[in-house]
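re: ur question from yesterday

yeah so i grabbed the chain u mentioned. its 457 aa long if i counted rite. heres the sequnce exactly as i have it in my notes:
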Amino acid sequence: MYKRTTDRVIKQINPQIFIEKAVRVENNKLYAGVRKYELDGNVSVIAFGKAALAMYAPIKRDLGIHLKRSFLSIPESSPVTMTTNDNSMETIVHAARNNLPDDATVKITRDIVKYAESLTEQDLCICLISGGGSALLCDPIVPLSDLVKTINILTSHSATIQQLNTVRTYLCKVKGGGLARYISPAKILSLIISDVIGDPLNFIASGPTCPVEVTKEDVMNTLSDLSLSSTQLPLSVQSLLNSGHPTINTCYSDIYNLIIASNKIALEIAARAVESEGYKPHIISDSVIGEAREVASELIATLSATTPKDEQYRYLTSEMLTNIQSALSTLDNDLTRLCLIFGGETTVTKLGDGLGGRCQELALAAALQLDRIETRYSISVLASSTDGQDGPTDASGAVVSQKTGAEARKQGLDMGVYLGNNDSYSFFSLLNGGRNQLKSGLTGTNLMDIVFIFVEI
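ran it thru and got these structure tokens back, copy pasting raw so excuse formatting
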């Protein structure tokens, strides 16, 4: 059942489906959202992110002769499964090993900028933006190695995507509306798949077509929130912060940013998937954040026979708690199975030297908590990333139940030790021969994470 559920979700969050719903080409005109664009062989495409290839395929097909030039910056692990045009018309570059900007990222970004500066008022530039875009479109003001060091420092201090992208925007020429400045005066249509809670345009891929000013004070406040000092960053970054940011040209063209998919949509698809398995779905929230293991403990605590008071929860809001209790109250002799569905993106503070990701860590912490509580329910928890890669692993997530603790002890696996070492990947690789570990393979998109809690009486 668990694999069927995740397979259904993955199949229906294909970026090509979202593009086909959002864009229509008819009689030499392109329609997207509330906009209409005249087509006359005047369209260029700049695509970057985990979903770039899948987003580009229907655009390329439908535009036909109106498409004059395309650039795609895609993850190093992405297979190219389409027929490519002559190199002078279509450039596809694999970049961003380990989801960090690299030399290939910088080269294609500079090629894109050079081309973008040649566009005129008659041109339409379609930007296809998705998760991972921050690493796949980057031309840093500081040396690349120093930017990467800075990102790693922030990540090691559990920086959120908002905090990471605030600093990235300050240190990069094409973020925070920077790409739009180069494309101007051409018209810009950005079709965006959001991988950020709340869908803020300035944080999705660091907002390359969303004009925003990030100041020195914004960066310093971010560092302070993470208990970091600028002196802990590379010297070039310190120097930039001390001297102030270079003056930015604020001339922009006609920009239309259109979000075509988000975690909320993924949760709706997930709800239909569990309903087909006989569970009554309840979407609780698409805004779950916080330390993965603590979020897991709080989620399981809501199902305990001795549910803590609201003020004892750090990450689950009053609205989430109300929604959970409302859903659980519907269980009776007529309705014996339901599924609580959560979306968002947790974080992991590295305490050990193990291998894992936020979904596997959340699942392991949930198993540990399930092993401790008393409850009248039968409970299973499935946590999965929608991009198919949970942390630096080949797993997408894991599934656990109240039986997991006993199974682990029988197999000589100490859940607390593995969790303490941030080694959830190794734990689930060993548990039951790896059958609790989910491996969907790379999905070619990213709509954050989904957590399913299956509840039965």
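noticed a couple things. The first strand starts at residue 23 and ends at 26. also Residues 8 and 273 are 6 Å apart (CA to CA).
anyway ttyl
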